[in-house]
Each structure stands twice: as structure tokens, then as C-alpha cells.
Amino acid sequence: MSIRPWRDIARRPSRRIRVGSVEVGGGAPISVQTMTNTLTTDAKATIAQILACTEAGADIVRVSCPDEGSTAALREIVRESPVPIVADIHFHYRRAIEAAEAGAACLRINPGNIGSAERVREVIRAAKDHGCSIRIGVNAGSLEKHLLEKYGEPCPEAMIESGLDHIRILEDNDFHEFKISVKASDVFLAAAAYQGLAEATDAPIHLGITEAGGFVSGSVKSAIGLGFLLWMGIGDTIRVSLSADPVEEVKIGFEILKALGLRHRGVNIISCPSCARQGFDVIKTVAALEKRLEHIKTPMSLSIIGCVVNGPGEALMTDVGFTGGGAGSGMVYLAGKQDHKMDNARMIDHIVDLVEKRAAEIEAGAVRPMEAAE
To answer: What is the signed CA dihedral for 122, 123, 126, 132, rounded to 10 degrees?
Structure first.
């Protein structure tokens, strides 16, 4: 029991599997995934995007394999990728077999469109032969015809039944290295389906709100849906689906996990929305600091508050803090304690230096980040 039990999240127990070098489920850290949107046949462009996503923090990257040319390019992509690659398969089971042969760490198949049970069995044999895990990807938009006829429309019960049917096929073939998702663009539908699924199986669960929309609307939908489920302890790996740069998906995914205290990476900036009381331009300052501090991977906190109403209180709980004052200067806080004044004109460069120094101290084990010291 922590000293702040109202912040505790009891994660749902699940089996642990491997997606290449990344462990998923069974208490392993919740991994962040994204998906490339380049042509897979353009191996150079796809590899470049994977590298950018990895730099942003992606643990796993999914690559679409719609045709034979894509699975042919996959071998080079897998070889050059620093993170495990999931091959995204729809409609043609042969692509899954080719992807396994090309070195994919995981095969994502959609039960609604992969074909007969026999074809799924062939995919299982290929996964076993090449050490691949499998993700069963149930999607409200592509449920099997018989389930739509049975239930009348996509609903939680239909999605759960689809997932459990295909779990049964894998387990009947003595295959247990799988995770499962039940995605929908409707936040309510997805949340209800995931809740039911979590009760029905101990398989690791991949969370996502599919077709969530553009950067703003998609981020909000994902934060609501994924945040709710993660808060309940459901979810072992996540993907934020946005009509945006995949790098942004990774960033939003990490921000959701950071907000819930489930993963810590980089600088957590606590800042006020600004008002007439601000002693400096908060919005401009935060934007500049977010850009300047992207290279910091060490988990730590920074408070940037415009005035003394909440500034000192927020600074008490952060590694580095700055609170606006008067006469063109503000107060700098280090490890929660008031330290020295700094001119607004030199503040950004000064804060970057302080954050880099604090990060180095944390990495060297000389100090602990303030959040970890609670």
C-alpha cells in the first residue's frame, strides 16, 4: 500500500507473452505501439519512420502487409528495425505466412476477414515455426457475418464472442503466445467490449480506440477510452490511432500512461493555462521548453507556473520549477525548494540547463526524481 492509495492502480492479472524482445502482459510494463503509414514496399521510407517512432519512445511498431511486395520488403525492414515489428494482415492468410518467414515478431490477424479455420491453422503453424506471437484483432467494423446476423449490429457481446471463438482456435492448436484486442471507434462500445473480454480471458489485452479521428479529436477519444480502461487495470499494450504522424501517436500514448503513473519517460511538464496574473508568457515558454527538452528521456518533473497563487505549491512536488513574479523575473525551485531568482529573458536557457543537470544526476543515481521520492 502506498502513502497515496487513491493513486494506486491494480492491474488485471494476465499471462505474459513475448513480442520479439518485448514482454507483454503478466505485470510487464505497458508497451506503446504505433503503425507506419508509408508504403511498406518503400523499405527505406518505412525504416525511417520506424526509427523516428522509436526515438519518440515506441516499444513495438506495426507494418501493414497488404500484398506480396510488402512481405518481400518486410525482411529488410525487420533487419533494420531497433524494435519488434508486427505484421498487419487482412484478407489473405498467405501474407501472414510470408511475414512470419520474413522475421515478423508478431502477426496481427482480423478474425472477421482472414478466412476459414483451416487457413487460421496454417497461420498458426507458420507462427510456431518462426517464433511469432499473434494478435487477434477484433474490430467492430469487420465482424463476421454470422455474428452480425445473430446480434443485429456490432455490440460488446458480438465482439467478445468473436474474440473468444478465435482464442479457442489458437488454444485448440496448442498455441498460447497471443494477445487480443476488441477495437471500436465508439468509445462506449470499445470500453464495454474490453471490460467483458477482461473478465472472460487471461490473455494479454491490446487497447485501442480505432479510427479515433484527427490529432485533437482522436487524442481526446483515446485519452477517455484508454484512460478509463487503464485506470481499471485493463490493458497490457496500447496504440493511440490518429489521422496524424505516427510519432504523435507515440507521444500521446506515453502522455496517457504518464498521467496515470503507469509509465514514466521524459520530462513531465506541469504548467498553468495562463491568465492576467502571469509574470511571463507561459504559453510561449512551455511550447519552447517542450521542444528544447524532447531529447530528455529521464523521468522527471518540471513546473512552469505564471504567478505565485499556485506556483510555489506545484514547485514543491517537482524536480525543477519556475514561478512568475514581478519586475521581469521569477523564482527558480530545485527539488521542491526555493533556490534563486532568474530574469524572464534568460529563463528558458537556464531551465534547460537545470533540467539537463538534474537528469544527469538522476541517471547517475545521485538523486531520485521527485515523483519516485513520494
So the answer is: -160
Report the candidate in 109, 111, 107, 114 with the shortest Cα–Cα distance to residue 86: 107
Question: Does pTM top 0.85 for this prediction?
Answer: yes
Locus of grid cell 528544447: 292
The SS3 call for residue 355 is helix
Cβ–Cβ < 8 Å for 106, 132: yes
Query: Residue 7: helix, strand or coil by DSSP?
Result: helix
3-state secondary structure of 158: helix
What span, in angstroms and rounded, lies between the C-alpha atoms of 268 and 300? 6
- Give the pairing of strands 237-239 and 206-207: parallel
Cβ neighbour number for residue 173 with a 10 Å cutoff: 16
Q: Which residue, 110, 135, 121, is CA-closest to 25?
A: 135
Quote the DSSP letter at residue 61.
E
User: Identity (one letter) of the amino acid at 59?
Assistant: D
| pLDDT tens digit at each of 374 positions of the chain | 567 888 899 999 999 999 999 999 999 999 999 999 999 999 999 999 999 999 999 999 999 999 999 999 999 999 999 999 999 998 889 999 999 999 999 999 876 677 787 888 899 999 999 999 999 999 999 899 999 999 999 999 999 999 999 999 999 999 999 999 999 999 999 999 999 999 999 999 999 999 989 999 999 999 999 999 999 999 999 999 999 999 999 999 999 999 999 998 999 999 999 999 999 999 999 999 999 999 999 999 999 999 999 999 999 999 999 999 988 999 999 999 999 999 999 999 999 999 999 999 999 999 999 864 44
Dist. CA 252–CA 260, nearest whole Å: 13
Grid cell 494476465 in the structure block, residue:
14
Contact 106, 73 (CB under 8 A): no
